[in-house]
Amino acid sequence: MGRNTRIEFIVAAILVSMSIAAGSALAGGSLDRPRDPVVIEGSDLPGLQGLPVNDISAFRYDTGWSQIPVQVDERKYVDFGAVYDTTDFGVGTVTYVDSLTYTGPDMDPAFDGDDELVFMAFDAGDRAPAGAGLPSGVVSDGPTLEMEIEDPLDGGVGYVYLFQSDGSLLPGAGEDYVAYSFNPEGGPYIPNYNRYGANPESSVVYSDNYRTFFWEMWIRDELNIYAGGSSGADILDRHRNQFAPGDCGRTEDTFSAGEGVFFANIDGPVRAIRSYMGANSGPFTQRLHLFYGQRHDVTTFLRVHEIKGIMDLYDYSPDAVGMSYYNNLNTGGVTVDGQGDTVSLGELTWEMVTGPQGTLVVSHSLETNIDPFAYTSYYSDNDDPSETQCTGDEFEYAESGDHVNQTIPDTNPPSPRYLNTTRIVHYESPSQAVGLAEERHDQAMTPFALTVYQYAPDDPLPALSTPGALALLTLILVLGILMLRRSSERGRVVGRFEPR
Description:
Layout (H helix, E strand, L loop, with lengths): L2 H19 L15 E5 L14 E6 L3 E4 L2 E3 L1 E5 H4 L8 E5 L19 E5 L23 E7 L6 E8 L14 E3 L7 H4 L10 E4 L3 E7 L2 E7 L10 E7 L9 H6 L3 E7 L4 E8 L2 E10 L3 E8 L7 E7 L7 E4 L2 E6 L14 E6 L2 E11 L7 E7 L13 E9 L14 E10 L5 H11 L4 E6 L14 H20 L4 E5 L3
Antiparallel strand pairs: 1-7, 2-3, 2-9, 4-7, 5-6, 8-9, 8-27, 10-11, 11-12, 12-13, 14-19, 15-16, 16-17, 17-18, 18-26, 19-25, 20-21, 20-22, 22-23, 23-26, 24-25, 27-28
Helix pairs in contact: 1-6
């Protein structure tokens, strides 16, 4: 090594060492997915298993430690008979549980492999530097995990740290990103819920960005968007379900008036959960709502005898007039005005309605092992429709969504066939361009890549006493090399996986 090269190396080591000694983070957070959650199963976090769920605390690092909200939702296998408060049926599912319904609480009250831990991606921070130590309020000899969260779309990275609280911290960190009030009008679910008839309710979900309302199990007929100066108008007539256009034999109204039960109604600091089952002759058909501050996931698990088809539609209200409708097959858009439009039909991946009222971006996904299988879409914007309107008002304003227009074979357990559909809805600022819908769809369909490390907090760096210039340079050089090596080997990798 030549003299100049050696001097450059020593100077570089000095600069690196001084940077580390000043407490700068070795990796800054660059994660840019502010609407999306990070959801991890307990089986992927063995270091936390066995802890009381309220003792799990999460932190970010930005020049210092800050607590962030984290939520644990307990799950277990539940026989469908238990949900109906009757004898076991011999079929069931792993599901969110609720001590206020007939699922009952998780038999293991500690964090276990079936449970889910969730926090929001926007709460991720920088990588804690060497010498950061532990935040206050955590057990010094408890589990310490560093989670690296990477966005495969753009390479953005953020970090979240999980510790055991010493009892002085609450998991929600004083935040509540979305609120859910389940209000059955007949009184508390147990023992008042009528499992074989109508159960009016006035249940509401709201955040800073939206509000939606349920007045019975399957019946949702109000939606207001507040994001970014949206007008807050109620743009939803109904979230509709029926077999075919004009076929009123089965609808969200008949589903709600027939046999049905709730799995869970949960209001947590990070998300709210509403899960129910029962759709006439499909008593095991289930719908799961996951509500976040700016996003809403709706999954429907079809479990029923052979049926002739199914439609899952959003029918907008007269207050949506003037908005524009787009989807992946019609990127030029049409105006919502009730005057009729010609749009291309086919398999939907995304839809968007946008205007001064706000913006709704809907991503669609479908899972099935039915073969052969095909589906298309439905669209009607008509204030004097020829088809009978089975529920809601008499209009079809941009009524749109998935239409399975073929016979669906038996999906009722124990049949091995399944058909699950998901809508991921984002609530956005007014008057957006098509590019936003494409971006949100890509994000909704692309899970984060997670790597979990064993976080080993380092002792603070020693003061740099300097009895002589040569001793100073030598000390800084050695420290720089050691710290660079240690920073590249922060901790033992305990898991790499994609969250649910």
